[in-house]
Request: fold
Amino acid sequence: MLTYTFDNRHGMSMYEHLYRCIKNDITSGKLFASEKLPSKRTLAKNLGISLITVENAYAQLLLEGYIFSRPKIGYFVAPLIKQPCPSILPEVTDKQPKEESFFASFSQSSVPEETFPYNIWARLLRHTLTTANEHDLLSDTSAGGVLALRQAIAGYLYEFRVVNVDPSQIIIGAGTQILYNLIVQLLGRDKVYALEDPGYPRLAQIYLANSVSCRWLPMDPAGISMDSLKKSQADILHITPSHQFPTGIVMPISRRQEILRWALEKADRYIIEDDYDCEFRLSGRPIPPLQGIDTAEKVLYINTFSQTLAPTFRISYMVLPRHLTQLFYQKLGFYSCTVSNFEQFTLAKFIMDGHLERHINRMRTHYRNKCDLISSYIAKSFLASYFKIAGENSGLHFLLHFETCASDKELSLAAKRKNIDVRFLSQYYHKKPSDNSHMLLINYAGIPAEKLLAAFDLLFEALAPYAEN
Reply:
């Protein structure tokens, strides 16, 4: 007869505790295959518990296949296949790779926490919850996203980026990485994808993870090298023409026209335009996108709200040519949108009420003041004669050339010893060039104002021993 105690159930119900006790006896081999179990009434009487408790425990064991029943005979232990023990168990660890903690990081592209419009966003969240149609809020959306948000983005693009698109051409995704994966599925893994070199490392990782062939093309002063592009046999070109990362190059109209002509040479050639921080050109008007001069439907335009609002704000969008929009829904329309309806309706209201425009204007002023302060501080520093700034007005990072004979690795390690994280242009090439670019990449946007000048002081202290004309 089965005998169990119910004293230490650790919050479990009576039936669950009994179920676990019998299950453990079966899996440990204490109860043998085909062994008959006590009847429900007999076991209930023996253990001093209710009949319903035993019935529920047996029912769960029966459902999971640990026991089986024979009508009018009773319950029996089901035969189980004993799992072999591996001769060598893999090492188990719950330790995650530790991220290094620095006083300040010039390599991280982030947004200052204090600049997020918390009060406005909280109010709009409440507004969405209380006014949105319940069906629209809770029902599944098309692969493209909520229509209200696509309409708001289309209006924003027309007014501020001189891009005239139909809302149906806009596809919403939870970050640009999701959209890159969708593009590969849309255009095909049999295509050759060309990337800028130097460029954004994670972009190449995404394409390679999709098992596509990649070509890394060098840059010249106007952007992607046309000679290299023509020789690459590429089908798809991924570029950042308004503010190339990491060089900061702004592609002139002549090069843009050359690239569009290249795309026209074959029907299946396309250009992916990543306009990641177009709103934050600090001098003059924002550069019009390549998509705005595309008359042959060759450009897939991508942008994100991660740069304008916050990196963890995982809402991005792409604008597809009309014929690719139709193909998207034919091939990939079975997907659900990866952004919740709740967030989409709230962002739509944020844009339509003018909050996005006002927020961008405030942030542009904030970043311009920050950049001016940095430029002035570098110019007045004791290392001023060893520095030369490039690309400070075209986005939220700039390049700082340092006159030295030391390698980039030496300089990076020296900065780390001062608790400062900094990367060099040489680190962003696919095929690493000689380690002597002496060109620091300065991402200043996310460093809090109270730390900014102190961070540069520590960087100057780290570099000072290596200064050499």
The CA atoms of residues 242 and 250 lie 5 Å apart. The chain has three domains: 14-77, 104-108+359-466, 132-353. The radius of gyration is 31 Å. The chain has a mean pLDDT of 89.
